[in-house]
TrEMBL record:
The protein's name in its UniProt record: ABC transporter permease subunit
GO cellular component: plasma membrane
Main localization, broad class: membrane
Subcellular location: Cell membrane
Amino acid sequence: MKIVQRMIYFLISIAGIILAGGLPSLLAGLNDKKLYTGHYWRDINEIINALMHPGSLKYTIIGGQKERDLFPYLFDPIFYSLTVLFASFFLALCLALVLTIVTMLFPVRIRNRIKLTFYLLESLPDLLIIMVIQLAIISFYKKSGILLFNTASTYDDKAYLLPILILAILPAVQLFRMTIVSFESEVEKDYVLLARSIGIGKLMILVVHVLRNAIISVFFQSKKTVWFMLSNLFVIELLFNIPGITRFLMSTMQPVLFVLSILSIFIPLFIFYNAGEMILAKKANRGEEM
């Protein structure tokens, strides 16, 4: 995909987010079977003007009375949430790849049992997993006096490790399901059969050859996993008292702040996936040429 096309998709997405930001005004009279188009376009105009002059933006938390400057305050929640999100994603991806490589070393019969176990884990509610882990840590702390992880963020001591670990659990299972399918598909290809015929070990084939090709497919499919993680990010921030961007989004109903909050998540993810796709596409093309 050319850079011009990517830029067009980016601008269309930005426009869609801006237009979505005014929907509450448009649908405010839905019970009376009315659409407030005038209010809608007024809000859209305000959003565009605000995005052109972000330094003058103010915000008021629901239930609060005092207005505050939005920037640089908003940078900290954005950075906090993106740190947890991306760290969880890379942790989940690494766990999935390691589990896949280990699973592929077993015979097919045992491999199928491992796959079934992980598929069953994927059906567990994410909220249940979060609560069980939190309760286990608190229970261990009460008995031993040792706090393994921070179970909540404070102003001076932010929780990172436990939220990252918990947010990564179910995505790791989802990514494992994708990677095991990709690995099983790759090991049937001619280059793997050739590598086996010249005496290369199974582990070496998986790590050096199969992983390099399978990771491309997994990366392209991982977008659904990231959307799943975003839906859980608010729950994580709420339960761990994390002052992140999704909690900020829920603390205000202003259309401008809604759009800015969504853009602060969308733009980094757009850059990440488009940069990754371009890099992996070049590697794939080089591999085909070789």
